[in-house]
């Protein structure tokens, strides 16, 4: 195994791992219950996915100038994505949105909605 094939394998492994993290973060945006947990999925997991993809592309780059440009894009995303999530979280808290806490009971594992069940009185007497 020569150096070029090792770089090729490492590059593809990083790209595939990055795609896995990006897809996981995207699924998190759809499946997670509130805005705060969705921001965590977008800010942390997608940053990791994009970072791995860009590092894999840097190994694939045909010239050093392309690798430098990819590195600058990576640095920009690395600093702006968490900062954007922090600003969004602060704005959401300032707007009065409360995070969901204790949504599952420990004993039964059923979801607690926070509302009481009320029985309707029958109109038939």
Question: What's this, in brief?
Answer:
The protein has 125 residues and is mainly alpha-helical.
List the defining traits of the structure above:
125 residues, mainly alpha, 3 helices, elongated, disordered C terminus
Please characterize this protein's 3D structure:
The structure is a single chain. It contains three helices and no strands. The chain is mostly helical and 125 residues long. The chain has one domain (3-94). Helix 1 packs antiparallel against helix 2 and helix 2 (35-60) runs antiparallel to helix 3. The chain is elongated, with a radius of gyration of 23 Å. The N and C termini lie far apart (86 Å).
List the helices and strands and how they pair.
Layout (H helix, E strand, L loop, with lengths): L2 H29 L3 H26 L3 H31 L31
Helix pairs in contact: 1-2, 2-3
Described by the principal axes of the CA atoms, the overall outline is elongated
Derived from helix and strand composition plus strand pairing, the structural class reads mainly alpha
Distance between the terminal alpha carbons, to the nearest Å? 86 Å
Strand runs, count: 0
Number of helices: 3
Number of domains: 1
The helix content is 55-70%
Rg is 23 Å
Biggest pleated sheet = none
* Average pLDDT for all residues: 83
What share of residues are in beta strands?
A: under 5%
Uncertain residue ranges: 115-123
Order of helices and strands: HHH
